[in-house]
Amino acid sequence: MYINGNWHQTDTTIDIENPATNEIIAKSAYGGKKEAAMAVEAAYDAFSSWSKLVAGERAGYLKKWYQLIDQHKEEIAKIMTSEQGKPLKEALGEVQYANSFIEWYAEEGKRIYGETIPSSHPNKRLFVSKQPIGVMAAITPWNFPAAMITRKVAPALAAGCTSVIKPAEQTPLTAIRLIELAHEAGIPKGVLNVVVGDAKEIGDVWLKDDRVRKISFTGSTEVGKLLMRGAADTVKKISLELGGHAPLIVLEDADLDQAVEGVISSKFRNAGQTCVCTNRVYVHQSIYEPFMNKLKDAFQKLRVGDGLQDQTTIGPLIDRNALKKVKNHLEDASNKGGDITYLGQSLDSENGYFMTPVIVGNASDDMLCMKEETFGPVAPVTTFETIEEVVKRANQSPYGLAAYVFTQNISKGIRIVEDLEYGIVGLNDGLPSVAQAPFGGFKESGLGREGGHYGIEEYLEVKYISLGL
Ligand SMILES: NC(=O)C1=CN([C@@H]2O[C@H](COP(=O)(O)OP(=O)(O)OC[C@H]3O[C@@H](n4cnc5c(N)ncnc54)[C@H](OP(=O)(O)O)[C@@H]3O)[C@@H](O)[C@H]2O)C=CC1
Ligand SMILES: O=C(O)CCCC(=O)O
Questions:
Q1: Coil, strand, or helix at residue 460?
Q2: Residue 310 neighbours by CB distance under 10 Å
Q3: Is 208 in the pocket of ligand 1 (CB under 6 A)?
Q4: Residue 293: CB partners within 8 Å, gap ≥ 6?
Q5: Comparing C-alpha atoms, which of 441, 448, 450 is closest to residue 420?
Q6: Rounded-to-integer distance, Cα 270 and Cα 188, Å
Q7: Where are the extended beta strands (E) located within 69-184?
Q8: CB of 303 within 8 A of CB of 311?
C-alpha cells in the first residue's frame, strides 16, 4: 500500500491469482480500517498545499507521470494481463487509454473558468469561481485495473483535489505500478494514496469521515447503492458508474459487415466483462439469416486462451464466480428455448477460467441474459419488426448506460438515438469510449459523468462571490 508517500506493509496478505493459469503470481498487503484512516489523514494534510499550486504546476506533475507510464506501458500491460487476464494487446490498449486521461486532464485543469453575472444593483458585482472539493475517494473494479483509476484520479488531481484509492482485490498490482510511477514523477506525498484491503471496512471509514468530500465508484449497482446510502450521512458528492445492459440494434438497411464488427468489438472487449459490452442484439427480422451467417463466421475467428499468447483474442474470465454466472445464464437460456451455438477456437485446458464465445439464437426477453449483466462472451440475438417495438424493448431495463444502433439511414438513426434512455450511444460505432467525451449512464447505471470537461466538474465546488463596491 502507498500512504503519505511511503510504502506500507501489513501482516495479513492476499494472494493474487493469474486467471489464465490459476498460479499465485504475487502477494499483496491487505489492510482495513487503520490504513483507510491513515490515507485520509495524509490526503487531507496534502490538500492545502496541492490545491494552492497553480494549474500549470499540477499539470507539470501529471505530464511527468504520463511520460513515465508511456515509457513503461509494455511492462504495465504484462502486469495487467497476468492479474486480470485480458489479451496483452488489449492490456496495452488499456494502458494507453488510461494514460490518455492523465494527458487530457493535465491540460483541462488549466481551463477551470469562472463567470461574471450581471448585477441587479449598481453598487454590486457578482462573480462565480470554482474550487477543488477536497479529498476524493476512488473505489475501482478489476475489469479496467488502470483506466478506472486514472479516469477518476487525473481530473481530481488536475482540479486540485487529493485522493485515496481502493483498487479491486483481484487487481492491485497494476494500481501499485501506476503509483510507483506517480511517486517517481515526484507527485507530492499525500496527494495519492492507495489502500488494498477489506472493501467494506475501507468503504465505511471513508463514508463516515467528513473530510472525504467526494466518492467516485465504478462497479456493481448493488455496491453503488450501498455507497450512495452511506454518503448521505455526511452529504458527500458522489459519482457512480454502475452496471449496464447494452442493447445493439441492427436495422434492415444496416451495413451488415459494419454491424457484425460492432458486435464483435463491443461484445468481446475484455471477454465481455465491461459495463458497456453489448448484452442483447436486436436484428430486423428481414435480415436475421444473413446477419447470423456473418456473425457466426466472425465468431469462428475468435481464439480463447492465455492473454500472454500472441494469437489470443479472448482471455479468461476474472474468477470462478464469473464463470458460474455465465454458465447459469446459458442454462437458463437453453431451458427457455435458446438456440445455443459455441463458436471460436477454444483452449483445452484444465486451468484458468476460460469461456468459449456463444451465440444464443432465438433469444426471448424473459431470459436472464436479456435482462441481467452476463459479464461474459455470450451474445443473445433476437428479432424485431418495427422501430417503435425495438426502442420500447431496448428501454425496458433498469439500466441505461450504453446502447448501439446500426443503420445507413442517419435521420432514422438519430431519431432512435434520441428515444433511447441511455447515456452513451454508438451509432454505427461499437467502441465509443474516449477521454474527451462524457461516460456515464441514465437510471440505475449511475450518476455523474467521467471524461471530458464534464469529468472535472465532479471534483469542483461552485463559489458565488457578491462584491459590494
Ligand atoms: N460497472 C462496471 O464496470 C463493473 C460492473 N461489475 C458488475 O458487478 C458484478 C460483480 O462484480 P464485483 O467485482 O463483485 O463488483 P463490486 O461492485 O463488488 O466491486 C467493485 C469495487 O467495489 C469494492 N467494494 C465491494 N464491496 C464494497 C463495499 N461494501 N464498500 C466499498 N467498496 C466495496 C470492491 O472491492 P473488493 O474487490 O475488495 O471486493 C471493488 O473495489 C459483475 O459481475 C458485473 O456485473 C463489476 C465490475 C465492474
Ligand atoms: O465500466 C467499465 O466497464 C469500464 C469502462 C469501459 C470504458 O471506458 O469503455
A1: strand
A2: 9
A3: no
A4: none
A5: 441
A6: 34
A7: 115-117, 124-132, 135-139, 162-166
A8: yes
Cβ proximity of 196 and 31 under 8 Å = yes
Alpha helix locations (H) across 245-360? 256-268, 288-300, 320-335
State the cell numbers at 276.
458497456
Q: Report CA(376)–ligand 1 centroid distance (Å).
A: 16
Joined together, the cell numbers standing for residue 304 give 480463447
Ligand 1 pocket mutation, candidates 1, 220, 433, criterion most atoms within 8 A of CB: 220
Q: Please choose from 90, 273, 274 the residue to mutate so as to test ligand 2's pocket, defined by most ligand atoms within 8 A of CB.
A: 274
Cβ burial of 11 (10 Å; 0-12, 13-18, 19+) is exposed
Nearest CA, atom 7, ligand 2: 433
- Rounded to the nearest angstrom, the distance between the alpha carbon of 439 and the centre of ligand 2 is 8
User: Ligand 2 centroid vs 143 CA: distance in angstroms?
Assistant: 8
What stretch of H or E contains 372? none
Amino acid letter, 106: A
C-alpha torsion 98→104→109→111, nearest 10: -150
Query: CA-CA distances (angstroms) from residue 414 to 405, 406, 409, 449?
Result: 9, 11, 9, 22
Integer Cα distance of 15 and 24 in angstroms: 6
Residue-level pLDDT at 422: 98
How many CA atoms within 13 Å lie on the side-chain side of 75?
Answer: 11
Going from the C-alpha of 278 to that of each of 266, 394, 404, 420, the distances in angstroms are 6, 12, 8, 15
pLDDT at res. 249:
98
Rounded Cα distance, 342 and 324, in Å: 17
Specify the pLDDT at position 348.
66
Find, among 205, 267, 276, the residue nearest to 242 by Cα.
Answer: 276
ipTM of the complex: 0.97
CA distance 203 to 332: 34
- Identify the pLDDT of residue 439: 98
Where the chain has pLDDT below 70, the residues are: 348
For 189-200, what is each residue's pLDDT tens digit?
Answer: 999 999 999 999
Can you count the helices (H) and strands (E) in the chain?
A: 14, 22
Q: What is the pLDDT of residues 367-404, one digit of tens each?
A: 999 999 999 999 999 999 999 999 999 999 999 999 99
Angle at 457 between CA 453 and CA 459, to 5 degrees: 130
pTM (whole model) above 0.90 = yes
Q: How far apart are CA 155 and CA 138, in angstroms?
A: 12
Closest ligand to C-alpha of residue 274 is 2
At 462, which amino acid appears? V
